[in-house]
Amino acid sequence: MKKLMILAVAAMVFASCASNPRPNVTDASGKVEVIEHKGTAWGAAQPEWVMTVNEKSPDQKALGKALGLQGKKIWVLTKTGQNLDFLKTWTDQVDARANIAASINQSVVDFVKGYEFGTNEEMTQEVQHVSGRFTQVALNGLVRETDWWSRTRQMPEGSDTYTTQYNYMVIYSMDEDMFEKQVRNAYKDVEKKELLEKILLHLMSELNVEAQ
Asked: What's 137-192 look like in SS3?
């Protein structure tokens, strides 16, 4: 009889959890706890691509597979703050194109700095020549794919008070052919054509997805 009662209670607890699913959390002090996310209200689980982004080094291939976006360049923008609506508006309408263009520009500058030139002066001139070039590109063909948000809390070590924040991330993509065309157009007057081709190869094969 006791066994039957225990099983009945367990079944009730299981049913309650199933009908009111909650995000996974950690209880240790100092750890970040997810207290709600985009899918909480209707019991949807966190999608695979979010886990891919949250890995230490998400890349184009892994994220493209998780999102079903093979053959596209992918960028991830993330913001944190206290007001979710503000984060969405700022990231989607203000920051997106500027941050993506800036990340591409920085990638090119870093690549050129590592390129073999005859002299440091020649390298400096070429860096100045390419710097800021992509920030003027309109980024035609950029598509907003999807987003996700979570609300987390954390009790800092030595404190007895939780701090909370919203975490917002949004995925943008562009067809690789369109991306290549715009890169070529942006750097078409680079005098060293071999350098131009290597810049293009670098950008097309780069695995980084962070755009911030």
From this structure: CCCCCCEEEEEEEEEEEECCCCCCCCEEEEEEEEEEEEEHHHHHHHHHHHCCCCCC
Residue 149 and residue 169 in contact, taking contact as beta carbons nearer than 8 Å: yes
Q: Which two tokens stand for residue 17?
A: 């959890």
| Residue 74 pLDDT greater than 90, yes or no | yes
Sheet holding 32-37: strands in order across? 32-37, 143-154, 163-175, 72-81
- Global confidence as pTM: 0.79
How do residues 16-30 score in pLDDT, each as one tens digit?
333 334 444 444 456
Contact partners, residue 185, CB within 8 Å, separation at least 6? 137
- Percent helix, strand and coil across the chain, each to the nearest 5: 50, 20, 30
Largest CA distance in the chain: 87
